[in-house]
Amino acid sequence: MLKSVAEVMTREPITVKAETPLREAIKILAEKGISGLPVVDDAGHLIGIISETDLMWQQAGVTPPAYFVIFDSVIYLKNPVEYERELHKALGQTVGEVMNEKPITISPDKPLREAAKIMRDRKIHRLPVIDDSQQIVGILSLSDIIRDMANSQS
Fold first, then answer.
1. Residues 58, 90 contacting (CB under 8 angstroms)
2. Where are the domains of the chain?
3. Domain 5-153 fold
4. CA atoms lying within 13 Å on the CB side of residue 110
5. Which residues in the chain belong to E strands, given as ranges?
6. Alpha-carbon distance 6 to 90, whole Å?
7. How many CB atoms sit inside 10 A of residue 7's CB?
8. Residue 48 bridge partners (DSSP)
9. pLDDT by residue (tens digit) across 57-101?
């Protein structure tokens, strides 16, 4: 029988709000040994996710896009909107300024195999699990899947 996401996910995940200071989120990630946090509004609805990758902009910084000038016109070789987004992440002070506002999600009744395929294909390490009212009910991480695989071997 195929397992569902609900059978393997971590229930009641640690969450943060958009106004949470970045320092606090970094501390939670380090102390709990996790790589990402769902971001919720006051009603508990998922509004984003913040991951270690989002935080790397703080340390690595950003490189301005290459450009050239022709007759008083600046032509960028890379989309300047991308640069603005990266700069915003590098300078952000709150979770809301750095988070991914469009996380990929899954419902708890979906097959675990489907979740694993999404994670593999999208190269993501976690999937927020939301119910029909957009409330976060869990999070499924690669660690959860590997732990389940190990338990199934016994």
1. yes
2. 5-153
3. CBS-domain (3.10.580)
4. 20
5. 10-11, 16-17, 36-40, 46-51, 67-70, 73-76, 126-130, 136-141
6. 35
7. 11
8. 39
9. 555 455 555 555 677 766 655 665 665 665 555 557 889 988 889
